[in-house]
Amino acid sequence: MASSATTASDYTVPLVGGQAHFLLRRLHSLTGIIFGGYLIVHLVVNATIAQGFDSRNIASYQVQVDKIHSLPFLPLIEWTLIYLPILYHSIYGVWITLTGQPNVANYPYAKNWFYFFQRLSGIYIFLFMLFHVLSFKYGLFGDRLSFDPHGNAMRSVAQHMNVSFLITWIVYPLGVLASCYHLANGFWTAAITWGLTVSAGAQRRWGYVCAALFVLTFIAGMTALIAAAALDPARIPSPAPSVVVEH
Fold it and tell me: Among 14, 6, 179, 19, which Cα is nearest to 90's?
């Protein structure tokens, strides 16, 4: 029943026009797919924290971080393929949430609840990313929360997770849960948006794939979190010389 579906209102249409509104929504979906791909890679790389150190006292996680930071034109890659898509997706997603017309109270169907939690998780992810990026990458909340990729990746993560119980066991678990749910449900709806799953059967089968994606990414995220929380900064071996290649 079309009237029972929870949808965002079309307040954007009078402002930018119907065709522009259509393109903005498609761009929002496309940037969500890009964001989702980055999230999968990010969680898998973070899960290597659980592998610990090899016989040379070099962390597997540090090796992966070095590979990333040896990429040429890394700031350009980050801003083009990560930050700008995330910023657009987040800002437009907040707009959809603020102008939406939730009706789960009137029509408490499963898809309506999925939509409601998609918007709710999006708001949390936006706030979570602000904290994570500003503290971890830019060090705006002090050195203990900042990240040093050049030989100190594991120590930085350990210090970050040892600052506060609230950060370790409230902020980050909710961030992982919200991100993995938003990713899986977003991929499911993106397939409908782009006309890839038209029939109910196709949507159901794709739903199983997305559910598996949620489970796998959540396991990867929690594996990284639990391993990071178990680290003792004082017992981490002294940093090995960085293998980052300068360009």
Answer: 179
Cβ–Cβ < 8 Å for 8, 100? yes
Print the SS3 string covering 112-154.
HHHHHHHHHHHHHHHHHHHHHHHHHHCCCCCHHHCCCCCCCHH
Neighbours of 191 (CB within 10 A): 20
Core vs surface per residue 56-92: b (16+ CB within 10 A) or e: eebbbbbebbbebeeeeeeeeeeeeeeeebbebbbeb
> Which residues are CB-neighbours of 91 under 8 A, at least 6 positions away?
none
Determine the Cα–Cα distance for residues 86 and 106; give it in Å rounded to an integer.
32
Global confidence as pTM: 0.87
What percent of the chain lies above the pLDDT cut of 70?
A: 85
Beta bridge partners of 100: 8
CA distances (Å), origin 87, targets 80, 95, 171: 11, 12, 20
* CA dihedral (224, 225, 228, 230) positive or negative: negative
Is the predicted pLDDT of residue 149 greater than 70, yes or no? yes
Question: Tokens 């026009």 identify what position?
Answer: 17
